[in-house]
Amino acid sequence: MFAQTSDSLTVKKNEKVIVITDSLLPKEEYNPLAPAKAAFYSAVVPGLGQVYNKKYWKIPIIYAGMAAGIYFYKQQDDDYDRFRNAYKRRLAGYTDDEFQGISDDRLINAQKSAQKNKSISLIVTVAFYLLNVVDANVDAHLRQYEVSDDLSLQPNFDYNQFNAKPQYGMSLTYRFK
Q1: CA dihedral 39, 44, 46, 50 (to 10 degrees)
Q2: Which of 20, 72, 143, 173 has its CA 20 to 30 A from that of 164?
């Protein structure tokens, strides 16, 4: 009475499964640690997070920004030392410095200006470093972001035949599955 018959155990062998993907790009498996790993790589060696994300074109921009900041820091530091040494020599009674004809007040202002520019150069260098880390993190997040036709924003243009004027519009479409 409860026994299975041979008819209920037959298996269909000719079934096919069709999988349709909604994206042209191959899907990567979601890795929640990828953004943290990219940020860590960029924090250790600037540009390594961009290599991890395969965005090689950003590396020269990062290094150029950091190099420019370091270059201007060094230049302003040398200028500051020159102004300071000349002022100190004048206070000691020497008059043979390289800034003949410039008053002591101008040397003090030049020192302050060089110190301020030194600080700005340091801030620019640190900003490029931090931008490198943030860019690697955000880029790793966006690499895993799925883009599909379920959410689309499309412009709409239609020609009104009654008053012979164009009609412009925008449609936002969200499809539930």
Answers
A1: -40
A2: 173
